[in-house]
Amino acid sequence: MGEVINEGDDVLLYLGGEKRWLIKVKADKRIHTHAGYIDGSNLIGKRYGEAIKSNLGRTFWLLKPTVEDYVLKCERRTQVVYPKDMGLIVAKTGLTSGSIVVEAGTGSGALTMFLANIVKPNGHVYSMEVREEFLEVARRNLKRSGLLDYVTLMVGDASQGFGVTDADVAVLDVGDPWRLVDAAWRALKGSGTLVSISPTFNQVEKTQEALLNAGFVDIECLEVLVRSMQVKTGATRPATRMIGHTAYLTFARKVLGDEKTLKEGASGQMEGVSNEER
What we know:
By secondary structure, the chain is an alpha/beta fold.
């Protein structure tokens, strides 16, 4: 049996395809859609997974929201990181329950929600944002998703330091990530992973140069493209539209050593790039 829906719960109303609404159930609230309206009082007592009809007779399915739903439907002041990129971040950084994460560039808190959902209940995310008004939006989004307890939101310039040491992962989602590389190195434990999220080549180039100079190895830049399939018996084909470029993801690992050793390591990485190009 499914979980019972109570007043104040979040429900994803699913009509089909991309037509879905994330709503908070209130007995005195009517949910209006192009396929008719549904009275909130009629949702109370139903179970996730059941169906309900609108006043126009259209069938909606009552689904329990996932963290992806909260990310895609969250209140926004900034562009959010797409789930396709979030998945690769988890895979490449080894993020897991109990991990400690520092993040620069909270924005609307979409990526922060995703990170917190992975590290809970024993891990924590320390997220820093220069604009306080963005943090208020992020706080509301985190509270609605039930993940605020696993996040510390901070106002400030992360280039001056995160106030955290021995972090497992550092995430830089800012316009000038190269400026924060040294602060991220200080926050990470040895072998910890840094990921930088950038929309342009120029940002990637400057960030890689800073990473080489700061004591990072295993530097890699990747892009994720996602194409849906339209599945129909005898006529399955790729969808006309796809999610193309959203961001370049740069990953790197922190290493320890004296200045000479780190410079030799950086030189070796550059030689490796040159050999590949040949």
